[in-house]
Specification:
- The complex is a heterodimer of chains A (405) and B (531).
- Chain A has helices at residues 4-22, 24-29, 32-35, 103-112, 148-162, 217-235, 257-262, 271-284, 307-318, 341-351, 381-396, 399-404, and strands at residues 42-47, 62-66, 74-77, 97-102, 127-138, 168-169, 178-179, 190-199, 202-210, 240-248, 252-255, 292-299, 326-332, 359-364.
- By secondary structure, chain A is an alpha/beta fold.
- Chain A folds into three domains: 1-51 and 93-113, no CATH class; 127-197, no CATH class; 201-404, von Willebrand factor, type A domain (Rossmann fold, 3-Layer(aba) Sandwich), CATH 3.40.50.410.
- In chain A, β6 (168-169) and β7 (178-179) form a beta hairpin.
- Chain A is flat and about 120 Å long.
- Chain B has 531 residues and is an alpha+beta fold.
- Among the domains of chain B are: 3-134 and 288-311, no CATH class; 333-443, no CATH class; 449-530, no CATH class.
- In chain B, the strands form three sheets. Chain B has a five-stranded mixed beta sheet with strand order 7-8-9-10-11. A four-stranded mixed beta sheet of chain B has the order 1-2-4-3.
- Chain B is globular.
- The chains are: A alpha/beta (405), B alpha+beta (531).
- The interface between A and B is large, with 49 and 66 residues.
């Protein structure tokens, strides 16, 4: 027997998830979704408990308690996270309700709100596997592949047309004359195979980042958030997704995910080293014929002056459209635009050295209009998440469409 | 009530007054003994039905406020989820639930130990006795269990007739007004009002223009259809205005006023009246939390510990007293926080001790010798009589007012805390007056702000004018707009609430059709004139 409370409970969950779905944009802007990275296709969001509003007294910030202690003793503290009401001292428990959202909802948001187009797989024919399946019929072939039923059916048709079907024949070993089906060569049908080409559904996402000392905590968090969004979106289109994390200062190296976001070292900056390292991986490990490759490079724009040209040359030579699906370059909180990587790459795209569809650039924060900022650039929380959304839109969106707008 | 609401779980009979129910083997011998002990001590309670429930079931009952059948609403589902989560994470545990009705239902958590079971029964019998005898409960309906189930059936009917969404939306609105009632109406409201018997209202008729009898053919051109329609609508409005004209004096009973006078459809009016009745039913529990819990805690401590009934069925050397102490500590514990169980229990214990030793009256009050006062003992032995008197006539406010003495405050180490902007709670002072004021403020009007309907036809515009009689504490601001918009929805006209803000200035909330105006008093007066 279904219990009454389960009906109410279900209703409650519906009310809440309906509210969340409506306000998904708000949750995404507040960065909650990215903070609670989901597993198994679920994202858990913690929302404050819904009270039924009544006219009640507010929290006047004082009250009565009991216990020992002198005047002025600290008897409790606000809970660190969550907006739990400090009704009495010492309430440390995080209030709120955890709701599991499907990743589908987030993807729908990306599709509807950000209007991201579906990713195109590589134009050149990459097949994961070519399977052979006998699902066709041919007139010639080896006897071992003869399709007996089809053959006899054909014989039956022919004999019926010729009028020989009713004819009685004497067959050795049978006393009475019987009707006989006698296939001739034209009647024979053979099984024939077809090739089934299964297109490759492998994708490689390369996340590379500048590891110089100027990439501080805030910038790394932006990298981390963006990587999550990119990952969610690309995973939607491919069965198998590999990730490669590359970190560089003056030399590049492969790191694991943890290190990628945390490692910091104040060495020099040689951006092209990362690209060179990545392109080396294409030779044996991830052959471009078999992999759809997406490269995302994050930097704060500072580079060794002479390296900029090498960077663009490497992009032009080793990251051609038939090698990678596209390359996204994100410049985070650059302190000056005029000599930054994005500037140089944009120039190169304008001059036609680089393909517009294949190399996409985007800037978060900083001064995009070319003026140099003397103070360290920073972003407010709201602004930050909004800019991340815009950046995702530009990176994964349809570049030709965006430029038209 | 039958057991069908608790499929499969065993219904136990407490004291053989409810026939036809089987007893559980383990508790069969003991529960009647406990009840008899309670009766011997002087308690006078409703017949008892003890029921064992699993945690899941007890969460369900607790989410429904103690009633197995309530109307469907998602907020109960929310409570349920919270209780479930609290249990799963090991933070909270409900030992028991008691329902104020006749017979009194006691729900025990089935996984309790025997000592816990018996303690809980003694404790719940204390509640039971309080429900039956305390004068604040004297007007509550003792057949509420059935009534709630009937409400549920009626609301389910409306849901199938008018749509679940629509009825739930209306319920959402009305439930926000549940606190805007006057508890004392439980007594007055039963009286049938005069005007319901002799309806002396004048009937409003549509006012049509006169047509010359010789020229009746002009009628459709003079009193056009549109004009007639408008006049008919006006009649409805004037009917409402007449109803409002009956308003005599400011009232706290805003929900009751809305029930009687708002332009509601029959099913809506029915829902409002049902929720009003439930709110009135729950009000005395809000009013007597400290006393009720204190009385129940005292009962179980007397029966189980003082009279030693904890040893029933115990095989261990300590006769279960350690387990009892552990249980008690869980209920009365909590450092630094204000625990109503604890306050009530110690208040009752203190009253008992004082009246046993004769520490009352003029002579004791005027005694200035502290040493003498400390060892004061006249051997009056009036304690038991006094606590039974207190449980009969007092609610939280009067109880704290009379018995929360300076000695008690100092002995129990009460203090006054303050919250600082850096997130710290600091022990502010041990000033007796401040503590007592803080405690009493929490219990005035059942802990709810005193909000009264001053004028339902403010400025002759049918605007509902509410006034908060402030004692210096600000209202919880974010909720005001929500509640006012709900009143606006039900009343179908603007609502104004004036209150004092944190800085002591008078602030006016004006809920219009689509938005909420928050202004100072002076600006408000101006804008009303221009309205």
């Amino acid at each position: 027997m279904p219990r009454r409370i389960h009906e109410d409970w279900q209703h409650f969950r519906d009310v809440i998830s309906g509210r969340i779905r409506k306000a998904l944009k708000k949750f995404i802007k507040s960065g909650q979704i990215v903070k609670n990275r989901g597993k198994n296709g679920k994202i858990s969001i913690n929302i404050p408990k819904i009270d039924i509003p009544h006219i009640v007294y507010g929290n006047s910030g004082e009250g009565v308690g009991r216990g020992d202690g002198k005047d002025g003793d600290v008897i409790g503290k606000d809970p660190q996270n969550g907006k739990g009401k400090g009704n009495g001292a010492g309430q440390g428990e995080a209030e709120g309700i955890t709701i599991n959202l499907d990743l589908e909802d987030v993807l729908r948001f990306m599709q509807d709100e950000l209007q991201l187009p579906n990713l195109k797989k590589k134009p050149n024919e990459i097949y994961d596997e070519i399977k052979i399946k006998y699902n066709n019929i041919s007139l010639i072939g080896p006897e071992s592949l003869r399709h007996n039923r089809r053959t006899l059916m054909q014989t039956l048709k022919r004999q019926a047309a010729e009028g020989t079907l009713e004819k009685l024949n004497h067959v050795a070993g049978i006393k009475d004359p019987v009707r006989v089906l006698q296939p001739i060569n034209e009647d024979k049908r053979y099984r024939q195979f077809n090739e089934i080409k299964i297109p490759s559904s492998n994708a490689l996402i390369v996340f590379a980042r500048d590891g110089s000392g100027s990439m501080d905590q805030a910038k790394c968090e932006i990298v981390s958030d963006m990587a999550w969004w990119i990952d969610v979106w690309i995973r939607r289109f491919y069965d198998r997704v590999d990730r490669l994390y590359v970190w560089h200062d003056s030399e590049a190296m492969e790191v694991d995910e943890n290190k990628f976001y945390k490692y910091r070292f104040g060495g020099g900056t040689n951006c092209s080293s990362a690209l060179k390292f990545i392109s080396k991986q294409f030779e044996n490990r991830y052959p471009p014929e078999k992999w759809n490759i997406y490269v995302f490079y994050f930097t704060d724009g500072d580079n060794w002056g002479e390296d900029n040209q090498i960077f663009i040359d490497t992009l032009a030579n080793d990251f051609k459209p038939n090698v990678v699906n596209f390359t996204g370059i994100t410049q985070i909180l650059a302190s000056s635009y005029s000599d930054s990587i994005k500037h140089h790459v944009d120039e190169a795209i304008k001059q036609g050295k680089l393909d517009k569809d294949c190399v996409r650039t985007v800037a978060i924060g900083g001064s995009p209009d070319g003026r140099s900022l003397w103070t360290a650039p920073s972003l407010s929380d709201d602004n930050r998440n909004e800019q991340i959304m815009e950046a995702i839109q530009q990176l994964l969106g349809n570049p030709s469409k965006l430029s038209r707008e | 009530m039958s057991s069908k609401f608790f499929h499969g779980s065993s219904l136990l009979m407490g004291d053989n007054t409810v026939p036809g129910v089987q007893l559980s083997k383990e508790l069969k011998e003991y529960i009647p003994k406990i009840l008899q002990a309670c009766r011997d001590w002087g308690l006078d309670f409703y017949p008892t039905v003890v029921q064992l429930l699993t945690y899941d079931e007890i969460s369900e009952v607790a989410a429904y406020g103690g009633f197995p059948v309530r109307f469907p609403h998602w907020s109960f589902g929310m409570e349920y989820e919270e209780l479930q989560r609290g249990y799963e994470f090991g933070g909270h545990k409900i030992y028991e639930m008691v329902v104020n009705c006749n017979p009194c239902y006691i729900y025990n958590l089935a996984s309790n130990t025997l000592a816990d079971h018996l303690t809980v029964v003694a404790h719940a019998t204390g509640h039971n006795d309080f429900f039956k005898n305390n004068i604040h409960f004297s007007a509550t309906d003792t057949n509420m269990m059935n009534k709630m189930a009937n409400h549920s059936a009626r609301i389910r009917n409306y849901m199938s007739r008018w749509g679940k969404e629509r009825v739930t939306e209306f319920l959402d609105h009305v439930m926000r007004l549940e606190t805007l009632i006057d508890g004392s109406d439980a007594w007055t409201d039963r009286v049938i009002k005069d005007r319901n018997i002799r309806d002396e209202r004048k009937y409003n008729k549509p006012q049509l223009l006169n047509v010359d009898k010789q020229r009746l053919y002009m009628e459709p051109f003079i009193n056009t259809t549109a004009f007639r329609k408008k006049q008919n609508e006006d009649v409805h409005e004037r009917d409402i205005a007449d109803e409002i004209g009956l308003f005599k004096e400011p009232t706290k009973n805003i929900l009751g006023f809305i029930r009687d006078n708002a332009p509601l459809k029959p099913w809506q009016a029915d829902i409002v009246s049902m929720l009003y009745e439930e709110a009135i039913y729950f009000f005395p529990q809000r009013q007597t939390k400290v006393g009720n819990e204190g009385w129940a805690s005292l009962t179980d401590s007397v029966i189980m510990a003082e009279q030693g009934f904890i040893s029933l069925g115990q095989k261990s050397d300590d006769c279960g007293i350690v387990e009892y102490a552990d249980h008690k500590m869980g209920v009365l514990g909590g450092k630094y926080s204000m625990n109503p169980y604890k306050l009530g229990f110690y208040l009752f214990s203190d009253i008992r001790e004082r009246w046993d030793k004769g520490r009352f009256g003029q002579e004791y009050e005027e005694c200035t010798d502290m040493h003498k006062k400390e060892n004061w003992d006249t051997g009056a032995m009036l304690g038991k009589e006094k606590i039974f008197e207190v449980r009969k006539y007092y609610d939280d406010l009067t109880m704290i007012h009379e018995f929360f003495t300076e000695e008690f405050c100092r002995k129990q180490e009460y203090f006054h805390w303050k919250h600082y902007p850096n997130g710290e709670y600091r022990l502010e002072s041990r000033d007796y007056q401040k503590i007592k004021k803080g405690l009493m403020q929490r219990h005035v009007n059942g802990g709810l702000p005193d909000i009264r309907l001053m004028e339902p036809n403010y400025g002759g515009r049918g605007i509902m004018m509410l006034q908060h009689f402030s004692d210096g504490r600000p209202l919880h601001d974010p909720y005001i707009g929500d509640v006012l918009s709900s009143i606006r929805f039900i009343w179908n006209n603007d609502v104004i609430l004036s209150t004092n803000s944190d800085d002591g200035k008078e602030r006016v909330y004006w809920q219009r059709a689509n938005y909420l105006d928050i202004t100072d008093r002076s600006k408000f007066d101006k804008s009303l004139n221009n309205f």
